[in-house]
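Lab notes, practical 5.
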Amino acid sequence: MAQGACWTVCETGNMGIPRFDLTGKVAIVTGAGGPAGIGRAIARTFAAYGAKLALADIDEAMLADRVAEIQEETWNSIVDTDMKSVFFLSTLVATHMKERERGNIINLSSMTARVAPARMVPYMTAKAGVHQMTRGLAAEWGRFNIRVNCICPGYILSSMSEEFLTDPKAYEAVTRPIPYNRKVGYPMDVA
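Output from the prediction step:
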């Protein structure tokens, strides 16, 4: 029976294997196309821990299936984290705010909700969902005196963007269109 990467992460924790971070690492996995092989399990696990993958297999059709499978898991993980959690938490908090007939909810989206950078489709889709969801919740809950707003920061120097923004060429490309002082923001700017 095929298990997903999220199951793999939970199981490794249950077996006493510590959580490890492969963010920013590149893994070349051969034999990754098989429907139940070691290569597939390694590819799914490494993807779940944040690695960028280069997959190889002699069977191109099966390899394409594995690539699609791993990208669907990435999609679900990002949408769950960056959009669905915002909806469920907002809904939970709003039940108490409705009783008091007042409240403020501020969601964080991203400038990627309005522009389309390369290689960020799941993230920018989730953030666009948060943007539109915020508008809908504001319209729906306004009658209870609940304000729902959304902040859409641009590039912020954080653990998520640090590796990218420490490259001088990338930093220049990002800050070139920013007026005035041409710098990225910091977490405290958003706070």
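Observations recorded by the TA: The longest helix spans residues 60-100. The radius of gyration is 20 Å.
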